[in-house]
Amino acid sequence: MRDALLSVHDFSVTYDVDPPVEAVKHVTLELRRGEILGLAGESGCGKTTLAYGVQRLLKAPAVITSGSVVFHDASGEDVEVDRLDAEQMRRFRWDKVSMVFQGAMNALNPVAPIGAQLEDVFVVHRPQMSRAERREAVAELLEIVKVGRQRARSFPHELSGGMRQRVMIAMALALRPQLMVMDEPTTALDVLVQREILRQISQLRHEFGFTVVFITHDLPLLLEISDRIAIMREGEIVELDTAERIWTNPQDDYTKTLLSSFPRLTGERGVVVR
Ligand SMILES: Nc1ncnc2c1ncn2[C@@H]1O[C@H](COP(=O)(O)OP(=O)(O)OP(=O)(O)O)[C@@H](O)[C@H]1O
């Protein structure tokens, strides 16, 4: 199996407004299997556009103006993402990649128990599963994300924000994707809950072997949880290196500025065991 999971080459996105916004400019990067890649940079630098763009999730006025994206599937097959038709793309998004959005926990249906909502993922995407199998899979998922199987009948409003976000992570894990893109997934949560969830994601990716792209402007957080960090500025990746080297020996002036803008709260990295 190849070490690389996703190869992005010369990828550019422009928002075709007046004047046009070149949101992502000639980005080339390779995601490695099993890593947590942090994507950092100020608001508006293009993080979300890049992450959505490589999955072809952008709508007009966004236009992909250059580049290619190849997904190196665990089966050994190379999937050229830009060549997939609509139906292949839909399946690709669910089976290979999953997303956890900012405030995702508010996307749960308020009038349906969380177990039923998780089950729906299997109803739609694994129609061959029996009801009993689905129920068991849901119970397992709720255990994995430490919500507990006994909560399957709970409604979203009966759960805390942290619990609801765990349910969303369970949903993202349901089909065992190879890549999980998390866009500010825990910013709405208090710091302790956030750390706890991140610790768990880090453990889960070892267990399940998925890759994580974690997007945030919270660089100290990324330093704790990421294997590598890409620093984005004005649509470009100005530096990409291990979290260790970004922390101890940043090369780019902008990275240095970003680092110096955060107070050293603990003086040390590694609150999250990687
Ligand atoms: N629909 C749109 N139309 C026009 N410009 C857009 C649109 N969406 C984003 N942009 C612009 O593209 C640039 C990149 O935005 P993007 O949301 O990708 O940045 P970001 O780094 O993810 O920011 P944030 O951290 O605030 O989410 C910004 O200048 C933004 O104003």
Automatic annotation (TrEMBL):
GO terms for cellular component: plasma membrane. CDD domains: ABC_NikE_OppD_transporters. The keyword Membrane applies. Keywords: ATP-binding, Cell inner membrane, Cell membrane, Membrane, Nucleotide-binding, Translocase, Transport. The keyword Membrane applies. SUPFAM superfamilies: P-loop containing nucleoside triphosphate hydrolases. Residues 8-259 form the ABC transporter domain. It is a peripheral membrane protein. InterPro entries: AAA+_ATPase, ABC_Ni/Peptide_Import, ABC_transporter-like_ATP-bd, ABC_transporter-like_CS, P-loop_NTPase. PROSITE patterns: ABC_TRANSPORTER_1, ABC_TRANSPORTER_2. SMART domains: AAA. It is found in: Cell membrane. One of its GO terms (molecular function) is ATP binding. Belongs to the ABC transporter superfamily. This is ABC transporter ATP-binding protein.
